[in-house]
Amino acid sequence: MADSEISACGPIADMDRCPLFGRYWGQSADPEKAARRIVEIANAVEAVQDGRIYIELINGLFLFRHKGSPAEYGAGMKLALERGWLVMHESGTFVRFTPAGAELFA
Predict the structure, then answer these.
(1) How far apart, in whole angstroms, are the C-alpha atoms of residue 19 and residue 29?
(2) In this structure, is residue 58 part of a structural domain?
(3) Is-contact 75 31, C-beta < 8 A?
(4) What is the Cα–Cα distance from 21 to 68, expressed in whole angstroms?
(5) What share of the chain is helix, strand, coil (3-state, %, to 5)?
(6) Residue 99 sits in a domain of what CATH number?
(7) By the 8 A CB rule, do 88 and 78 touch?
(8) pTM of whole model > 0.70?
(9) pLDDT tens for each residue of the chain, 106 residues long
(10) What span, in angstroms and rounded, lies between the C-alpha atoms of 34 and 15?
(11) Which of 65, 75, 78, 105 has the CB geometry, 3.0–4.6 Å to 31, for a possible disulfide?
């Protein structure tokens, strides 16, 4: 990458480490932190009928407001689903909180 290229953390020339999720350049993301961030975002988003939370609302906020990467989003969502905090509809268009996920904010 050239020094003038921009990353999710800002200009590479200005940074020797990326503060995003506490990771450094060249190291992998922390899926635990990403999963918790995804669940926090899902909790803040207003659910529509039957507790549905549209996936684009979560990934849009994660990627653009919180400056996460697609890899971090994928790893975090996978972990949130594996831990049983969220359940995704078979269409992939929305998620719902499970009782275990709801307990995180009780």
Answers:
(1) 11
(2) yes
(3) yes
(4) 8
(5) 50, 15, 35
(6) 1.10.10.10
(7) no
(8) yes
(9) 444 444 445 444 433 445 444 444 444 568 999 999 999 999 999 999 999 999 999 999 999 999 999 999 999 999 999 999 999 999 999 999 999 999 998 8
(10) 22
(11) 75
